[in-house]
Amino acid sequence: MEPALVDLKNVRVVRGDNVALDDFSLRIKAGEHVAILGPNGCGKSTLIKTITRECYPVIREGSSMTILGQSRWNVFELRSVLGIVSNDLMQDVTGETSGREVVLSGFFSSTRIFDHQTVEPSQRKRADAVLERIGVPHLAERPVAEMSSGEAKRILIARALVHDPQTLLFDEPSNSLDVFAQHGLRETMRELAQSGIGIVLVTHHLSDVIPEIDRVVLMRNGKIQADGQKKDLLNPEEISRLFGIPVDITRRDGYYHLW
To answer: Which domains occur in the chain, in start order?
Structure first.
């Protein structure tokens, strides 16, 4: 059987004095499209940091974690498997950095190109190719300070794609985006999903869940409340329990909307 992209079994992660994930088990297949949905503070950020090896589970009997079947990874090699699109990253990018530089920085795990780093012609060619693929070659020379939030988000997606990863992990991708930029982002996610790239979407916005995602994982208080097919779980009863308030849900063109 092909190893899972991520396989967490009875994982506990402690951050400070708080247990952020408790007896947490989650398996995501390679190439799968899945949304992890939950309110702020439910442990989504800790889950992301655990997958990207910024946080580590407590060592205890019966607990394990693997990525593509391996329990240990060189984090630089991991980036060629799993691309991350995170809002936190853009906060570290200086305003004068150009779009192409941000994309190229993905090769060096930095946020710009520093004097000691040498960009190979093949890397520059790859950066320009992914900018073209995302539809923003015109942003190659534009400073980040002159980009809209939607344009900057596309640059981050291009940065994550330079390694040709098997899966992209989107961390609250629509935060700070206006309606137009949200629409563009979701269309880009759909195109990527249809191209065969796995999509792991972590969000508290129900409307971020693109039609190509069939499976949803509902998280609350560091645990999984439910895990199953979108059509079975995105209903008023389950989502009201997730967010702790009465809600209504409508569906249109494959998208679900919360009211």
So the answer is: 1-81+199-259 (3.40.50.300)
